[in-house]
TrEMBL record:
Bilayer topology term: Single-pass type II membrane protein
GO cellular component: membrane
Protein name as it appears in the record: O-fucosyltransferase family protein
Source organism per UniProt: Arabidopsis suecica
GO molecular function: peptide-O-fucosyltransferase activity
Amino acid sequence: MVKVSSSTTSSSSSSSPDEESDLQNLLEESDSQIDQFRISDEAAEQRPTFDVESLRSRLRRSFKLNLTKKQSIFIFLPIVIILIYLSTDFSNYFSVKVPNSVFRSNTLTGRVHESDLQALNLLRKQESDLFSIWNHTVSNLSTIDDVKSAVFRQISLNRQIQNALLSPHKTGNVDIGGSSDGYFAGGSCRKVDQKLNGRKTIQWKPRPDKFLFAICLSGQMSNHLICLEKHMFFAALLKRVLVIPSHRFDYHYSRIIDIDRINTCLGRTVVVSFEEFWKKDKNRKKHHHVHINRFICYFSKPEPCYVDKEHITKLKALGITVGGKLDTPWEEDIARPSNKTAEEVEANFRSDDDVIAIGDVFYANVEREWVMQPGGPVAHKCRTLIDPNRLILLTAQRFIQTFLGKNYIALHFRRHGFLKFCNAKNPSCFFPIPQAASCITRLIEKVEAPVIYLSTDAAESETGLLQSLLILNGKTVPLVKRPARDSAEKWDALFYRHGLEGDSQVEAMLDKTICALSSVFIGASGSTFTEDILRLRKDWGTASECDEYLCANEQPNFIADHE
């Protein structure tokens, strides 16, 4: 170590200008190196600092020595090293800290206030306590739903406060620590336990030479599918093979549902298409036509079977003749259907005729709980008997993978022709769009789904307004609809390869399938389209405890007068 004597100090006044310049340069270099190693304001406040300006002043007063460049370097280099050592926390360079949350101060001039940190810490403790209450609640089935709802609101409020506290400190796509993807895993929107082991079923073992013609005429496709499902129950009770109607008389069922799969699910032939029936009917071989021996109407009012002269003409055009007149075994009004038992159906529709037809059974109320149970009333080895066509199911899955992902809400937003229909009911089921948006937003918050699949017949003016109102935590939740055909997109390639492109009924079933596969479903009260989706969700095991009709338990906040 170099020692400087007092005599040397006294002679400092005789130092040359070059040596003074060297000393000044060395001090400036030392300042530059120190500046390069300065740390952030927040870390610096947590340990002692070194007063560089004071040091420089003292050096100028006390070390005005007549030294060469080399001597100056040897004297001041150790000082610079000591300054760097004292000014730098090297532990930051050789250790890793994992913070509880993500705080970035790059865009801030100050540090996070201690009160903010304390509030955040208390909120997280509250969140932990609320989750403990929640988990205890969902495991106790006797606890009322209101308690669970109250706890959920507290958790939701807690998260909003945490986000508000953190919002000034976010520098990118940063989320708060702690709960995230599993925020309600097994919680508020669990799948419904359908308890399939307790199903009440009937064996469908038809006589191979006895047939039942399904007649479904009321409403659109969804009504016809519900009617067809009830016909299966009737066919099982009467031990007959069900004949699926021809597309020249009804819808093109083979394009929409998987008919062959029904037989596979039961392990025997229980349904045949009209074309197959035509080939094997023994009467056709003799008389070159198909003959229905007896046409039985389930309803007598307002008109028998809903069958008019136009439908009779269509049947004749198919080469079908009907023996006798339309008859009904009882007085039954569509407007007021009575409860019927399986035994009553067997007794009143039993016949030794080879071919009978029954219609229309859409409004029939036979063993409702039995028919509506998951999987339906007939014993089989599949999830459900009436499944979408395989091509539709695959296309729905490809659409979900392309646009939606695993966690999404599906919304059936029925509007066209629904205003008058709903206002005729009490209470009405037609909601103003702002009210509907409020109901949907509450469910979005509960589910934490990033997108909503929209199945609707609404005008763009209505869906545009609805989209603008779906905002949660300052972010718009997008409504996703099926886009128009684009050759660059391949999710719907199966449709145009197999000639299903542009079929409105195929597209309707595609919508149902996408809705049926969603995490949570919001339906339209009074719509059979919604009811068929709920049937699929129930049978597929995708039904959620959060599934509901739009604005359930509410009434429209404004209702127009009647005409």
